[in-house]
Design brief:
Subcellular location: Cell membrane
CATH class of one domain: Alpha Beta
CATH superfamily of one domain: P-loop containing nucleotide triphosphate hydrolases
Keywords: ATP-binding, Cell membrane, Ion transport, Iron, Iron transport, Membrane, Nucleotide-binding, Transport
GO cellular component, one term: plasma membrane
Structural class: alpha/beta
GO biological process, one term: iron ion transport
Strand content: 25-35%
Number of strands: 13
Shape: globular
Pfam family, one: ABC_tran
Largest sheet: 6 strands, mixed
Oligomer: single chain
Helix content: 25-40%
Low-confidence stretches: 264-272
Strand order of the largest sheet: 7-8-9-4-10-11
Distance between the termini: 39 Å
Amino acid sequence: MTRLHTRNVNVGYGDKTIVKNLQVEIPDKQITTIIGSNGCGKSTLLKAMTRIIQHQSGSIILDGESITKQNTKELAKKLAILPQNPESASGLTVGELVSYGRFPYQKGFGRLTIRDLEVVEWALDVTGIHEFKYESVDALSGGQRQRVWIAMSLAQETEMIFLDEPTTYLDMAHQLEVLELLKKLNREEGRTIVMVLHDLNQAARFADHIVAMKRGEIIKSGSCEEVIQRDVLRQVFHIDALIGRDPRTNKPVCLTYDLWKGEEETNEKIIYNPAAFASAYT
């Protein structure tokens, strides 16, 4: 099932077109990751699908209607976005920032209702940050702050959450912490997750669906097995990758890679020993 899709979409800045004639479908209640080299249009596509920026031509359809025709507050009840560099929350407590997610539901003077407060409490609980409710956002670690921004997105009560490189600037443990949280939200809450990731192995491990982009166009979209392929990665990243299987998840994993130098294909087979690879993790 697909609630969100694009048709022949072009997006750019000024006279420069970044995303070209794009057609993409976002599977409902699944995790989709968008991969590609820097400047290929990943973030631009994310911003266009969430109406942060306008598309130049084509159509972006959500629930059978163009997003350009939908009321802003109503659209904010359907989807939330966490940008790559969220605006500063200086001076705010965790609880105050998370409560900002209730903006689409507020009327009049914008006072929080009992329902709003209940949702904020739930968002703090599900993201594991309730203990920081009265602490300054500035005083938290990078991973904790990222959880706060995700909690704010959850407080919007949207069924779709978009994240632009949610693991940027985080160490390995905090990256895993954030991605595990998103997976939990997808599996237990049924949220549709769409995120831009740079790490191929993280993309393959956590995604149900992958969109691979290059120069504003989609090179390949589909399951992890269909996209994390040697020929696809060669086109998208200009690398010659050795693909194996993660012994813990059985998902495709990029074991190593070299820059692709454009040599002719050979019939040489690379032997991959799963047992040897697995021994490195035991």
